[in-house]
Structures are given as C-alpha cells and as structure tokens.
Specification:
Layout: H1 2-51, H2 60-65, H3 78-91, E1 113-119, E2 124-130, E3 135-144, E4 150-159
C-alpha cells in the first residue's frame, strides 16, 4: 500500500508539473502572438495613414476651402462632395468616344474609360484609366462653383507602354 501511495503522489506531482508548465507555455505563446498582431496592426495603420496623406478626407486645409460661411457663402460638405465628384467624373465613361477627361483619343475599337479616382485635395484629382489593353493615369483639376456645378480640366496625362 505504501508503494502504491508513493506512486500515486509521484503521478500527481508529475501531472501537476506538466499541466502548470503547459498553461505557462500557452500564456507565453498567447502573449507573443498578441504582440505580433498588435505590431502588425500598428504597421498597417501607419502605412494607411501614410497612403491617405494626400487625400481630401484627411486634409483639413483643403476641407476648409469649401467652408465659405465667413463670406456669407455656402458650406459644401466634403463628405458629400467626394462621391458626387467621383460619380460625375465616372458618368463621362458612357460617352461613345470614351471619357474625354482621360486626355486620350480612342485607339482601336476600345474606348478609354476611367477606372479609379482619388480626390487629392480641393483642386486636384488623380485617376487611372484604360481601354482594356493600354493603361494610363491622368491628373485633373476640378472646380466647384457657388451653384455646386462641377467642371473638370485635364492637367497632365500619361499612357503607359505595353
């Protein structure tokens, strides 16, 4: 009986040591994984902030340009302006000759249309365009008048080689 009792105590001690170390190992692994994930999230957040540096959404000076309340004018909310400007520019894709604000004439059977638009500030837009075979980018100026009419002007365009 004594041997059985000693064997049971030894089994309990070994089992206790095994499970306590397993819990400690699991906690350490959890802490390392959590730290890695936090570092990854911080890195992605920093890259996103850097990428959005040139954006109307994050440029307070450009946002203030649309606040004409001091001179008795109208306040244009940039949150509502961004989708309106983007939609208006993309509506020109329906033109049978292609979007005139790509700065390119139709080459071959396919017309040039704008695919992606980024509003940089209160005056500039950068857009990506293609005709399915050729791709390019265009820098546009846009103007919003007091009646909230939007006009565009091609500043520079670039068509990449095949």
């Amino acid at each position: 009986m004594l041997y059985l009792f000693i064997l049971a105590i030894l089994m309990n001690v070994f089992t206790y040591m095994f499970y306590s170390r397993e819990v400690k190992f699991g906690e350490e692994r959890y802490e390392k994984t959590t730290k890695k994930l936090r570092d990854s999230i911080n890195l992605v957040s920093a890259k996103l902030a850097e990428a959005d540096y040139f954006s109307l959404e994050h440029n307070e000076n450009a946002q203030n340009y649309f606040d004409n309340s001091a001179s008795g004018g109208k306040v244009i909310l940039y949150e509502k302006l961004i989708p309106v400007v983007t939609e208006k520019l993309l509506d020109f894709n329906a033109n049978p000759k292609g979007n005139p604000y790509t700065g390119q004439d139709q080459i071959g059977p396919n017309k040039f249309i704008i695919n992606k638009v980024k509003i940089l500030n209160h005056r500039w837009i950068i857009a990506d365009y293609s005709n399915g075979e050729l791709w390019g980018e265009v820098l546009l100026k846009y103007f919003v008048d007091d009646k909230e009419n939007i006009t565009f002007e091609v500043n520079q365009t670039w068509l990449y080689q095949k």
